[in-house]
């Protein structure tokens, strides 16, 4: 078979999975995720089964979706009543051919 000039579309696959993190409240943190696919997959993050809101949904969000697909926290928010950042995360990469889901990654806030 000769080399095909036209690149074939292919479904997403995760090439870098997020790892578990233990972070201090108020500190920045990054959950890494990198996916390949053609067309380039869109990345979304889920925590405990619910989609994570980022600056793409709300410009004032303290969570940013980086171009690589990683999830960056400007500062970890953690209080007695509200613990929006602690939990188990996955990243999901999608294109029209399918989706790929990363390993689970737990983000834990260190107790002072």
UniProtKB/TrEMBL annotation:
<dbReference type="InterPro" id="IPR013783">
    <property type="entry name" value="Ig-like_fold"/>
</dbReference>
<dbReference type="GO" id="GO:0007411">
    <property type="term" value="P:axon guidance"/>
</dbReference>
<dbReference type="GO" id="GO:0007156">
    <property type="term" value="P:homophilic cell adhesion via plasma membrane adhesion molecules"/>
</dbReference>
<dbReference type="InterPro" id="IPR003599">
    <property type="entry name" value="Ig_sub"/>
</dbReference>
<keyword id="KW-0393">Immunoglobulin domain</keyword>
<dbReference type="GO" id="GO:0070593">
    <property type="term" value="P:dendrite self-avoidance"/>
</dbReference>
<dbReference type="GO" id="GO:0030424">
    <property type="term" value="C:axon"/>
</dbReference>
<dbReference type="GO" id="GO:0098632">
    <property type="term" value="F:cell-cell adhesion mediator activity"/>
</dbReference>
<dbReference type="InterPro" id="IPR007110">
    <property type="entry name" value="Ig-like_dom"/>
</dbReference>
<dbReference type="GO" id="GO:0005886">
    <property type="term" value="C:plasma membrane"/>
</dbReference>
<dbReference type="InterPro" id="IPR036179">
    <property type="entry name" value="Ig-like_dom_sf"/>
</dbReference>
<protein>
    <recommendedName>
        <fullName>Ig-like domain-containing protein</fullName>
    </recommendedName>
</protein>
<dbReference type="InterPro" id="IPR003598">
    <property type="entry name" value="Ig_sub2"/>
</dbReference>
<feature type="domain" description="Ig-like">
    <location>
        <begin position="12"/>
        <end position="110"/>
    </location>
</feature>
<dbReference type="Pfam" id="PF13927">
    <property type="entry name" value="Ig_3"/>
</dbReference>
